[in-house]
Amino acid sequence: MLSSFTRKVFFRKQVQRCLDFSTTACVGKVYNEPLSGHEMPRAGGIASMMRLPVQTDTEGLDACFVGVPLDIGTSNRSGTRYGPRQIRCESSLIRKVNIATGACPFDSMQVADVGDVNLNLYNLPKACEDIRKHFCNLIRNGCITLAMGGDHTLTYPILQAIKEKYGPVGLVHVDAHSDTNDEMLGEKIAHGTPFRRAFEEGCLVGNKVIQIGLRGSNYHLTDYDWGKQQGFKIVQSHECWHKSLTGLMEEVRDMMGNHPVYISFDIDALDPSFAPGTGTPEIGGLTSIQGLEIIRGCKGLNIIGGDLVEVSPPYDFQGTTALTGANLLFEMLCILPKVKYDLK
To answer: Do 310 and 267 meet the contact criterion of CB atoms below 8 Å apart?
Structure first.
Protein backbone atom coordinates (compact mmCIF):
# COMPACT_ATOMS: atom_id res chain seq x y z
CA MET A 1 0.00 0.00 0.00
CA LEU A 2 1.17 3.54 -0.74
CA SER A 3 1.66 5.88 2.22
CA SER A 4 -0.79 8.76 2.65
CA PHE A 5 1.98 11.20 1.69
CA THR A 6 2.75 9.31 -1.52
CA ARG A 7 -0.93 9.09 -2.44
CA LYS A 8 -1.27 12.84 -1.95
CA VAL A 9 1.77 13.43 -4.17
CA PHE A 10 0.34 11.28 -6.94
CA PHE A 11 -3.10 12.87 -6.65
CA ARG A 12 -1.74 16.41 -6.69
CA LYS A 13 0.47 15.78 -9.72
CA GLN A 14 -2.26 13.99 -11.68
CA VAL A 15 -4.81 16.73 -10.99
CA GLN A 16 -2.33 19.39 -12.06
CA ARG A 17 -1.57 17.51 -15.28
CA CYS A 18 -5.25 17.21 -16.11
CA LEU A 19 -5.69 20.96 -15.56
CA ASP A 20 -2.92 21.59 -18.07
CA PHE A 21 -4.85 21.59 -21.33
CA SER A 22 -1.63 21.65 -23.34
CA THR A 23 -1.27 18.00 -22.42
CA THR A 24 -4.25 16.91 -24.47
CA ALA A 25 -3.78 13.21 -23.85
CA CYS A 26 -4.61 13.72 -20.17
CA VAL A 27 -7.83 15.69 -20.66
CA GLY A 28 -10.69 13.56 -19.37
CA LYS A 29 -8.47 10.79 -18.06
CA VAL A 30 -5.87 10.57 -15.32
CA TYR A 31 -2.82 8.43 -16.06
CA ASN A 32 -0.39 6.99 -13.53
CA GLU A 33 3.16 8.22 -13.76
CA PRO A 34 6.39 7.50 -11.89
CA LEU A 35 6.99 9.27 -8.61
CA SER A 36 9.40 12.10 -9.44
CA GLY A 37 12.72 12.57 -7.71
CA HIS A 38 11.63 16.19 -7.27
CA GLU A 39 8.67 15.05 -5.17
CA MET A 40 10.49 12.49 -3.04
CA PRO A 41 14.18 11.52 -2.81
CA ARG A 42 15.02 8.54 -5.02
CA ALA A 43 16.05 6.53 -1.97
CA GLY A 44 12.50 6.88 -0.62
CA GLY A 45 9.09 5.72 -1.70
CA ILE A 46 7.77 2.25 -2.43
CA ALA A 47 10.23 0.03 -4.35
CA SER A 48 7.88 -0.58 -7.26
CA MET A 49 9.00 -0.48 -10.89
CA MET A 50 9.86 3.19 -11.55
CA ARG A 51 8.02 3.91 -8.27
CA LEU A 52 4.71 3.52 -10.09
CA PRO A 53 1.50 2.80 -8.19
CA VAL A 54 1.01 -0.84 -7.23
CA GLN A 55 -2.16 -2.85 -7.76
CA THR A 56 -2.96 -6.53 -7.57
CA ASP A 57 -4.64 -6.96 -10.97
CA THR A 58 -4.68 -5.34 -14.41
CA GLU A 59 -8.10 -3.71 -14.20
CA GLY A 60 -7.96 -0.41 -16.10
CA LEU A 61 -4.37 -0.93 -17.23
CA ASP A 62 -2.93 -0.77 -20.74
CA ALA A 63 0.43 -2.20 -19.63
CA CYS A 64 2.00 -3.48 -16.45
CA PHE A 65 5.28 -4.58 -14.94
CA VAL A 66 5.23 -7.94 -13.17
CA GLY A 67 7.96 -9.82 -11.33
CA VAL A 68 8.68 -13.54 -11.70
CA PRO A 69 11.14 -14.46 -8.89
CA LEU A 70 12.28 -17.80 -10.32
CA ASP A 71 15.71 -19.45 -10.39
CA ILE A 72 15.12 -23.19 -9.97
CA GLY A 73 15.47 -23.65 -13.73
CA THR A 74 19.08 -22.42 -13.83
CA SER A 75 21.97 -24.61 -14.94
CA ASN A 76 24.91 -22.63 -13.55
CA ARG A 77 24.74 -19.73 -11.07
CA SER A 78 21.46 -19.17 -9.25
CA GLY A 79 20.17 -15.93 -7.74
CA THR A 80 17.73 -14.68 -10.37
CA ARG A 81 14.87 -15.04 -7.90
CA TYR A 82 16.14 -11.71 -6.55
CA GLY A 83 16.18 -10.11 -10.00
CA PRO A 84 12.72 -8.47 -9.90
CA ARG A 85 13.36 -6.91 -6.50
CA GLN A 86 16.72 -5.45 -7.52
CA ILE A 87 15.41 -4.21 -10.88
CA ARG A 88 12.68 -2.34 -9.02
CA CYS A 89 15.19 -0.77 -6.62
CA GLU A 90 17.48 0.42 -9.41
CA SER A 91 14.54 1.65 -11.52
CA SER A 92 14.04 4.62 -9.20
CA LEU A 93 16.61 6.43 -11.34
CA ILE A 94 14.46 6.24 -14.51
CA ARG A 95 12.43 9.31 -15.40
CA LYS A 96 9.10 9.38 -17.22
CA VAL A 97 10.00 10.39 -20.81
CA ASN A 98 12.46 9.01 -23.35
CA ILE A 99 14.17 12.16 -24.56
CA ALA A 100 16.14 10.27 -27.24
CA THR A 101 13.10 8.80 -28.98
CA GLY A 102 10.38 11.24 -27.94
CA ALA A 103 8.33 8.50 -26.28
CA CYS A 104 5.95 9.68 -23.54
CA PRO A 105 4.41 6.40 -22.37
CA PHE A 106 2.72 7.86 -19.30
CA ASP A 107 0.83 10.43 -21.37
CA SER A 108 -1.10 7.80 -23.30
CA MET A 109 -1.19 4.57 -21.30
CA GLN A 110 -2.30 3.53 -17.85
CA VAL A 111 0.64 1.64 -16.34
CA ALA A 112 1.24 0.11 -12.91
CA ASP A 113 3.33 -2.48 -11.12
CA VAL A 114 1.19 -5.54 -10.37
CA GLY A 115 3.62 -7.26 -8.04
CA ASP A 116 5.07 -10.76 -8.32
CA VAL A 117 3.81 -14.16 -9.37
CA ASN A 118 3.34 -16.37 -6.30
CA LEU A 119 5.06 -19.52 -7.55
CA ASN A 120 6.26 -22.86 -6.24
CA LEU A 121 10.03 -22.76 -5.68
CA TYR A 122 10.31 -26.51 -5.01
CA ASN A 123 8.75 -27.90 -8.20
CA LEU A 124 9.65 -26.35 -11.56
CA PRO A 125 6.73 -27.79 -13.60
CA LYS A 126 4.35 -26.59 -10.88
CA ALA A 127 6.04 -23.16 -10.92
CA CYS A 128 5.50 -22.98 -14.67
CA GLU A 129 1.82 -23.76 -14.22
CA ASP A 130 1.58 -21.06 -11.55
CA ILE A 131 3.13 -18.58 -14.00
CA ARG A 132 0.86 -19.62 -16.88
CA LYS A 133 -2.31 -19.21 -14.83
CA HIS A 134 -1.17 -15.88 -13.41
CA PHE A 135 -0.42 -14.45 -16.83
CA CYS A 136 -3.69 -15.75 -18.26
CA ASN A 137 -5.42 -13.55 -15.67
CA LEU A 138 -3.16 -10.56 -16.29
CA ILE A 139 -3.63 -10.46 -20.07
CA ARG A 140 -7.28 -11.46 -20.39
CA ASN A 141 -8.39 -7.82 -20.67
CA GLY A 142 -5.70 -6.96 -23.23
CA CYS A 143 -3.14 -5.55 -20.79
CA ILE A 144 0.42 -5.89 -22.10
CA THR A 145 2.75 -7.49 -19.56
CA LEU A 146 6.44 -6.66 -19.21
CA ALA A 147 7.93 -9.33 -16.98
CA MET A 148 11.01 -9.01 -14.77
CA GLY A 149 12.94 -12.21 -14.19
CA GLY A 150 13.86 -14.57 -12.97
CA ASP A 151 15.44 -17.34 -15.07
CA HIS A 152 14.49 -17.86 -18.70
CA THR A 153 12.27 -20.85 -17.97
CA LEU A 154 9.55 -18.32 -17.19
CA THR A 155 9.09 -17.34 -20.86
CA TYR A 156 7.71 -20.79 -21.69
CA PRO A 157 4.58 -20.54 -19.49
CA ILE A 158 4.13 -16.87 -20.45
CA LEU A 159 4.06 -17.87 -24.12
CA GLN A 160 1.53 -20.58 -23.26
CA ALA A 161 -0.71 -17.89 -21.79
CA ILE A 162 -0.05 -15.59 -24.77
CA LYS A 163 -1.08 -18.35 -27.17
CA GLU A 164 -4.44 -18.73 -25.42
CA LYS A 165 -5.18 -15.07 -26.08
CA TYR A 166 -3.36 -14.25 -29.33
CA GLY A 167 -2.54 -17.57 -30.95
CA PRO A 168 1.00 -18.30 -32.23
CA VAL A 169 3.20 -15.19 -32.14
CA GLY A 170 6.42 -13.88 -33.60
CA LEU A 171 9.43 -13.64 -31.31
CA VAL A 172 12.35 -11.26 -30.98
CA HIS A 173 14.70 -13.26 -28.75
CA VAL A 174 17.91 -11.53 -27.60
CA ASP A 175 20.25 -13.93 -25.81
CA ALA A 176 23.69 -15.48 -25.65
CA HIS A 177 22.02 -18.90 -25.84
CA SER A 178 19.37 -20.32 -28.14
CA ASP A 179 17.47 -22.02 -25.29
CA THR A 180 16.24 -24.69 -27.69
CA ASN A 181 17.70 -27.77 -25.97
CA ASP A 182 15.44 -30.79 -25.98
CA GLU A 183 16.52 -31.84 -22.49
CA MET A 184 18.82 -30.70 -19.69
CA LEU A 185 20.00 -33.46 -17.37
CA GLY A 186 17.05 -35.50 -18.59
CA GLU A 187 14.47 -32.78 -17.89
CA LYS A 188 12.24 -31.22 -20.55
CA ILE A 189 11.68 -27.97 -18.64
CA ALA A 190 14.63 -25.75 -17.71
CA HIS A 191 16.01 -22.35 -18.65
CA GLY A 192 17.74 -23.87 -21.69
CA THR A 193 14.57 -25.38 -23.20
CA PRO A 194 11.76 -22.74 -23.25
CA PHE A 195 11.69 -21.95 -26.95
CA ARG A 196 11.78 -25.58 -28.03
CA ARG A 197 8.83 -26.37 -25.76
CA ALA A 198 7.00 -23.23 -26.88
CA PHE A 199 7.47 -24.04 -30.56
CA GLU A 200 6.40 -27.65 -30.09
CA GLU A 201 3.18 -26.45 -28.46
CA GLY A 202 2.37 -24.05 -31.29
CA CYS A 203 3.10 -20.86 -29.36
CA LEU A 204 5.51 -19.52 -32.01
CA VAL A 205 5.44 -18.98 -35.77
CA GLY A 206 8.75 -20.44 -36.95
CA ASN A 207 9.50 -18.01 -39.77
CA LYS A 208 8.74 -15.07 -37.45
CA VAL A 209 11.34 -15.95 -34.82
CA ILE A 210 14.70 -14.20 -34.70
CA GLN A 211 17.43 -14.97 -32.17
CA ILE A 212 20.08 -12.25 -31.80
CA GLY A 213 23.40 -12.40 -29.96
CA LEU A 214 23.97 -16.16 -29.77
CA ARG A 215 27.54 -17.09 -28.90
CA GLY A 216 29.87 -19.05 -26.66
CA SER A 217 31.19 -22.56 -26.75
CA ASN A 218 28.69 -25.34 -27.46
CA TYR A 219 28.52 -29.11 -27.33
CA HIS A 220 28.12 -29.65 -31.08
CA LEU A 221 28.65 -27.60 -34.23
CA THR A 222 25.02 -28.37 -35.09
CA ASP A 223 23.52 -26.89 -31.92
CA TYR A 224 21.70 -24.11 -33.80
CA ASP A 225 20.45 -26.37 -36.58
CA TRP A 226 17.16 -27.32 -34.93
CA GLY A 227 16.06 -23.70 -34.83
CA LYS A 228 17.09 -23.08 -38.41
CA GLN A 229 15.08 -26.13 -39.48
CA GLN A 230 11.97 -24.58 -37.90
CA GLY A 231 12.54 -21.33 -39.84
CA PHE A 232 14.22 -19.33 -37.05
CA LYS A 233 16.58 -16.56 -38.18
CA ILE A 234 19.84 -16.90 -36.22
CA VAL A 235 22.14 -13.90 -35.78
CA GLN A 236 25.28 -14.85 -33.88
CA SER A 237 27.04 -12.29 -31.76
CA HIS A 238 30.17 -12.11 -33.91
CA GLU A 239 27.97 -11.03 -36.82
CA CYS A 240 27.08 -7.95 -34.74
CA TRP A 241 30.57 -6.90 -33.71
CA HIS A 242 31.64 -3.32 -34.54
CA LYS A 243 28.38 -2.37 -36.23
CA SER A 244 25.01 -0.73 -35.71
CA LEU A 245 22.00 -3.05 -35.63
CA THR A 246 19.53 -0.57 -37.11
CA GLY A 247 19.78 -2.30 -40.49
CA LEU A 248 19.06 -5.68 -38.95
CA MET A 249 15.99 -4.28 -37.22
CA GLU A 250 14.63 -3.05 -40.56
CA GLU A 251 14.74 -6.69 -41.66
CA VAL A 252 12.99 -7.70 -38.45
CA ARG A 253 10.15 -5.25 -39.06
CA ASP A 254 9.70 -6.63 -42.57
CA MET A 255 9.76 -10.18 -41.20
CA MET A 256 7.12 -9.57 -38.54
CA GLY A 257 4.69 -7.33 -40.45
CA ASN A 258 1.60 -6.74 -38.31
CA HIS A 259 1.71 -10.17 -36.66
CA PRO A 260 1.61 -10.19 -32.82
CA VAL A 261 5.17 -10.17 -31.49
CA TYR A 262 6.69 -11.03 -28.11
CA ILE A 263 10.11 -9.71 -27.01
CA SER A 264 12.29 -11.82 -24.74
CA PHE A 265 15.57 -10.22 -23.68
CA ASP A 266 18.06 -12.28 -21.67
CA ILE A 267 20.47 -9.88 -19.98
CA ASP A 268 23.33 -12.26 -20.80
CA ALA A 269 22.95 -11.20 -24.44
CA LEU A 270 25.02 -8.21 -23.35
CA ASP A 271 28.73 -8.68 -22.82
CA PRO A 272 29.61 -9.36 -19.15
CA SER A 273 31.50 -6.07 -19.08
CA PHE A 274 28.07 -4.38 -19.33
CA ALA A 275 26.02 -6.90 -17.36
CA PRO A 276 28.10 -9.16 -15.09
CA GLY A 277 25.22 -10.10 -12.80
CA THR A 278 23.86 -13.12 -14.62
CA GLY A 279 24.00 -16.88 -14.29
CA THR A 280 25.63 -17.95 -17.55
CA PRO A 281 27.88 -15.13 -18.80
CA GLU A 282 29.57 -15.40 -22.20
CA ILE A 283 32.30 -13.05 -23.46
CA GLY A 284 32.07 -11.28 -26.80
CA GLY A 285 28.48 -10.13 -26.35
CA LEU A 286 26.38 -7.21 -27.48
CA THR A 287 26.95 -3.72 -26.16
CA SER A 288 24.30 -1.86 -24.19
CA ILE A 289 23.97 0.49 -27.17
CA GLN A 290 23.16 -2.46 -29.43
CA GLY A 291 20.60 -3.63 -26.88
CA LEU A 292 18.91 -0.23 -27.16
CA GLU A 293 19.04 -0.40 -30.96
CA ILE A 294 17.28 -3.77 -30.94
CA ILE A 295 14.45 -2.67 -28.67
CA ARG A 296 14.00 0.73 -30.29
CA GLY A 297 14.06 -1.04 -33.65
CA CYS A 298 10.91 -2.91 -32.60
CA LYS A 299 8.91 0.31 -32.66
CA GLY A 300 5.97 -0.12 -35.01
CA LEU A 301 5.64 -3.84 -34.38
CA ASN A 302 2.46 -5.26 -32.89
CA ILE A 303 4.06 -5.92 -29.49
CA ILE A 304 1.78 -7.92 -27.19
CA GLY A 305 4.24 -8.65 -24.37
CA GLY A 306 7.84 -8.86 -23.30
CA ASP A 307 10.29 -9.86 -20.62
CA LEU A 308 13.77 -9.08 -19.31
CA VAL A 309 15.29 -12.14 -17.64
CA GLU A 310 18.34 -13.68 -15.96
CA VAL A 311 19.34 -10.73 -13.74
CA SER A 312 21.21 -12.29 -10.81
CA PRO A 313 22.03 -9.57 -8.22
CA PRO A 314 24.41 -11.70 -6.10
CA TYR A 315 26.93 -11.52 -8.97
CA ASP A 316 26.82 -7.74 -9.32
CA PHE A 317 26.92 -5.95 -5.99
CA GLN A 318 27.07 -2.55 -7.69
CA GLY A 319 23.61 -3.07 -9.24
CA THR A 320 24.74 -2.21 -12.77
CA THR A 321 23.10 -5.27 -14.31
CA ALA A 322 19.75 -4.60 -12.64
CA LEU A 323 19.92 -0.92 -13.61
CA THR A 324 20.59 -1.91 -17.22
CA GLY A 325 17.68 -4.35 -17.09
CA ALA A 326 15.38 -1.68 -15.68
CA ASN A 327 16.30 0.68 -18.50
CA LEU A 328 15.72 -1.98 -21.14
CA LEU A 329 12.26 -2.65 -19.68
CA PHE A 330 11.50 1.07 -19.84
CA GLU A 331 12.60 1.01 -23.48
CA MET A 332 10.17 -1.86 -24.09
CA LEU A 333 7.40 0.19 -22.52
CA CYS A 334 8.28 3.07 -24.86
CA ILE A 335 7.69 1.02 -28.04
CA LEU A 336 4.28 -0.38 -27.17
CA PRO A 337 1.60 0.37 -29.78
CA LYS A 338 -0.38 2.92 -27.73
CA VAL A 339 2.59 5.08 -26.77
CA LYS A 340 2.42 8.77 -27.62
CA TYR A 341 5.51 10.33 -29.20
CA ASP A 342 6.36 14.01 -28.95
CA LEU A 343 9.38 14.92 -31.06
CA LYS A 344 9.61 18.65 -30.30
So the answer is: yes
